[in-house]
Amino acid sequence: MKRKLNVNRNSAVSYSIVIALYIALSIMSASGLLGRKYSSLLVPVCCYIVAAIGLNMNVGISGELNLGQAGFMSLGAFTAVIVAGALNFHGITAPALVLLICIICGTLVAGFLGWLMSIPVLKLEGDYLAIVTLAFGQIIVNIINNVYLGIDENGLHFSFVNNTLQMQPDGSVLISGPMGATGVKTASNFTAGFLLVLISLIVVYHIMYSRNGRAIMACRDNRIAASTVGINAVAEKTLAFVVSAALGGAAGALYGMNYSSFAATKFDFNLSILILVYVVLGGLGNMTGTIIATTLLVVLPEMLRFLSIYRMLIYAVVLIVIMIVTNNQAIRMKLKALRKGKAGNGSGKGASVNG
Amino acid sequence: MKNKFLRLGVIAALCGAMTACGSSAGTSSTSAASASGSDTAVASGSVSGTTTTASGEAFKLGASGPLSGDASVYGIAVKNAAELAIGEINKKGGVQFELNFQDDQADTEAAVNAYNTLADWGMQLSLLTVTSGSGQSVAPLYKEDNIFGITPSGSSTAVIFQDAENNTNPYGNVFQMCFTDPNQGKASADYLSEHTDLGTKVGIIYRNDDNYSTGIYNTFVEEAKAKNLDVVSTGTFTKGATDFSVQIKQAQDAGADIVFLPIYYQPASLVLQAAKNAGYAPTFFGCDGMDGILTQDNFDTSLAEGLYMLTPFSADAQDEKTQNFVKAYKDKYGETPNQFAADAYDAVNALAQALGNSDVTPKSSTDDITAALIKQFTTMKFQGITAPGDITWNENGEVSKEPRAIVIKDGAYVSAE
């Protein structure tokens, strides 16, 4: 198997959009053109894009419904807080290094739990993954809500349900039950977010256009037919799911290191659904669409602030309009014709993925 | 095909029209307080001979709270009362305010966005946030930019302390108008131990995934132990619970004659319903989160009859200040103000008093304003509507004032004595 960066028309569009946006926004942010409000949105947008790309891997490419992406984000975020707390306590404070280690740990923890979960579930056919991930998201929220965790010279202290940490005076509490993570030293920045988006795109595209990716899509389209030609459907689906979970964890770690304080209730069922909305509106299996949809939908409520109390009402209206427009056959045809006209003999590869 | 595009065009045009309307409404509403202030200032100016115009010479007061979503009752009450107070203050002349109130849906992430929106606007001082969770996520930002904030109702210790575990290392520029959660738990236990006629066996139902609820619960239990209160049962629930029959049964079986509910009013209303269904009628006792239960939609107020709550404000208090506030609020918004509104009203008035006593002007730098306000707040005495006596603050930003107990009688809040 050849190892090289697999670039085709589809991925090239994604990469160039992300890079162009990064350069433009960096310049605008540095020159103060964006203002504090939009500058502060850059990192959360990157987080949600990574989480949505991950989810799209699972929902779009592998065709399994996942309702627990926020749970994986939560795992990543709280892992990051614990790791960062431990690193800071031992005198490692360089933000870039801390962030890198946090993101790696968050990714691994979320990926590992995703893998554990996939063992029993993905052997089954049907909606079981949706049910299990839904429950997983809820369980994670409830567990973390009851966790008290601190660090001092004797190491990590942990207590459950009631706060019985016996901390030395030099220690600091990292997770405090329903209060969530407090006093986090923030380390995320837009460049890190951009790199994470780029890396997740490379990972996802690499899988999509590899032999494994073809196999995953084959299982999505017809599991029985795929099995008859010798594809191990369970293994392929597991791969997609674990990648999805791991990217959720990475996104969560980036998110966690961006806010000085956040609670487990932030990563509830609503957030999972929100990310699913980004994916569905962006287009199942369409990474470029996911990036654009996520950016728009995260920024939109902030752009609508001038509407004061009508803000969320208009937000809902916009969502509905987008849904009608993107599902309109006439507009789709028009877009397709436009694309064909532009690209001439566009590669057939892309079309099959855009399902 | 053409027809469909036409329709889409119409939709787009409609959206455009709505946004346009919205934008004008939005800007007018933010400047409404200052505009009405300037009108009346001019009117009164013609009598006294001096005219004060609000624009340009007003302090830019920022705030964020839930105007949409679950907790919007609190956000709207705070916004209304703050606007009311600012209207009155601007009318008087002297210190002038311009309010910018942003929606944060009681969400930490949205609160940070709201803070940045306010910072872009040029906020000079702030009412911080309405809810605790949002408050603790933006407090470090206030510290970083050195902007003075006083939260009307963010009652968690994490709002004012960087180390909320030990209550040390305060932000210093973040103050509270309301009691902290631990104080409420302690005051509730004290009150119950002094009023044994209400009952002696205490059952507790609290929400163990909520900061506010666990904060009160922990200190209540601690103080109850110290005061020899008999806690016979403890029931917990989590966000979104709708069935409380188990917890009620538990308290009933344990023979509790007081049920302490350190929770918000939405679940509390369901607890009351569950108790009625079980034919169980102890004395229910709540804290400030219980406030608002009477104005909840589709709530049978007879269920709340005899409900005690410890809250700093009761709308039926006979002093002149409270009466004036309640009347003005009712006239303007058509409902009885709750204690969130009262806290916000006091917070704005305290800010006005502090600014009036100092020599900073809206043209002063934010650092000067913050320094002046910290100095004033830690030294001044303030008389408001959320306490019978003087209200003072310590340098941690904690408020010191007397709590009062109120009880619901005939569908209205009445002072309990």
Structure in words:
The complex is a heterodimer of chains A (355) and B (417). Chain A is mainly alpha-helical and 355 residues long. Chain A has helices at residues 9-30, 35-39, 42-61, 69-89, 95-121, 128-144, 190-208, 211-221, 223-228, 233-256, 269-282, 287-303, 311-326, 329-343, 348-353, and strands spanning 147-152, 155-160, 172-176. In chain B, the strands form four sheets. Chain B has a seven-stranded mixed sheet, with helices on both faces. In chain B, strands 2-1-3-4-7 form a five-stranded parallel sheet, with helices on both faces. The termini of chain B are far apart. The chains are: A mainly alpha (355), B alpha/beta (417). At the A-B interface, helix 2, strand 3 and helix 13 of A face helix 1, helix 3, helix 4 and helix 6 of B.
CATH architecture of chain A: Orthogonal Bundle
- Elements of chain B, N to C (H/E): HEHEHEHEEEEHEHEHEHEEHHHEEEEE
Structural class given helices, strands, pairing of chain B?
alpha/beta
Helix content of chain A: 55-70%
Task: Reconstruct the topology from this structure.
The complex is a heterodimer of chains A (355) and B (417).
Chain A: H1 9-30, H2 35-39, H3 42-61, H4 69-89, H5 95-121, H6 128-144, E1 147-152, E2 155-160, E3 172-176, H7 190-208, H8 211-221, H9 223-228, H10 233-256, H11 269-282, H12 287-303, H13 311-326, H14 329-343, H15 348-353
Antiparallel strand pairs in A: 1-2, 1-3
Chain B: H1 2-48, E1 59-65, H2 72-92, E2 97-103, H3 108-121, E3 125-129, H4 132-145, E4 148-151, E5 161-163, E6 168-170, E7 174-176, H5 181-194, E8 201-207, H6 211-226, E9 230-237, H7 245-253, E10 258-261, H8 265-277, E11 283-286, E12 308-311, H9 320-333, H10 339-357, H11 366-379, E13 382-383, E14 390-393, E15 399-400, E16 404-409, E17 412-415
Helix pairs in contact in B: 1-2, 2-10, 3-4, 5-6, 10-11
